[in-house]
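re the bet — no i am not wrong, look at it urself. input seq straight from the record:
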Amino acid sequence: MWQSEHRTEWIPPEEAGLTDREQEILRLVAQGLANKEIAYRLGISQNTVKVHLRNIFSKTNLQSRTEAAMYAVRFGLVALTPSAPIMAEEEEEAPALGEPLAEPEESPEPTRAIAPTLPTEGSPVAALPRGHAALFLIAILLGLAWALGPAPAHPEAPDRVFQGDQRGQGIERNEALSRWKLISQMPTPRARFALARWRDWLIAIGGEAPEGITDRVERFDLRRETWERGAPKPYPVAAAAAGTLGDRIYVPGGVNPQGQPVDRLEIYDPQADRWLEGPPLPGPLAAYALAVAMDRLYLFGGWDGRRLQGAVWMLDPARGRWEPRAPMPTPRAFAAAAALDEAIYVVGGYDGQRELATCERYRFTVDRWEPCPPLNVGRGGLALAAMDGYLFAIGGGWRIPLAFNERYQPGADRWTPFETPITGTWRNLSAVPGDGGIWILGGWSGEPRAGVWRFTPFPFRLFLPATQR
């Protein structure tokens, strides 16, 4: 196991440059939590915890978990209590050399020149201070005021997009949220990944993991609440989505490890655990919104490597080809789509400058667009799920710290806020409905997340017994 070079003096947190996340992990170490418990509480992987510990030890001259606990007490990061046991020294869990490094908050990627490439998560911005609740509240109020004020016209599709992707930080709420439950942790934390439900399985495909764009396929058994590995995707991509048609899961396009959108369509057969190749897209495309309706797959907008798209494509598996449909009124990427009744709602998005609150409804039976009430606040990289006659918009956020999610019932004149377990930044997550709830996985909050949440919109249902006449 890797050990840092021995040093005799500890460096105070402010001089060491410990990030908010690192100080949080130090506090949990001092409370006696093992890496597995820390990972579960923070919604990150155990390997990411190890990487943070490695960074902490390197910055502060610490040698062990015992020293880490003493350090946290000495510098006021945690109060000394008799009920906080220290993990034994054999539990020392700094990562070995060669393990992939998580993206550290203190070393943001340098600002890049504007170029026709899709940005990876973690472009530069100062992380939101965890301890400054007043500043955080002010930021939320300013964000709401900005979003609810007059919006400028939507930009034309630019040739070069998505510079200045912000590094936000998501903060888990401490109070109990009765409708939210953290069920499990994905084996691989990830964002911008494809998620599909097939029978009693949730299947996570590709996306951005701590080590970069991955080909991993991981399957979660909803009955046993256990994970297993699936056959890896032949061509790893991020910024892609998945749709289930029959017993096949369709994953079109996405951005490859070189940062370029692709036109490939790969089809996963979960029963045989194998991949097939389908008809390619008309052109490269990533960061689109996807929905399934009437046994057809619909793609909305996205990014082709040069500009934002408003095109809409439909795949009929029986015909085996992509067909154009009426284009979206608002070109955009990182929006979300869901089918409800006889329409597909396309909500939110990000254009490289700002999050969008736009809501547009596509009547797929007549190939026609119409407006719907906008979100209360712009959301880019959100997830959208339809359930019991409602739409649920969850997460998002590049430049606006978010403090709530939103729901909408067709025919209403506005979206209604509802609670969120993570405030600040929680974007490029994925969600699917099922079994009376909505499953929300992964996402980005300053680093890839691994949490598997279950949200129950209507925990109490009234059933009236039948009466005999």
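see?? The helical segments are 13-16, 20-30, 35-42, 46-60, 65-74, 133-148. told u. also Confidence is low (pLDDT under 50) at residues 1-8, 80-118, 122-166. so pay up
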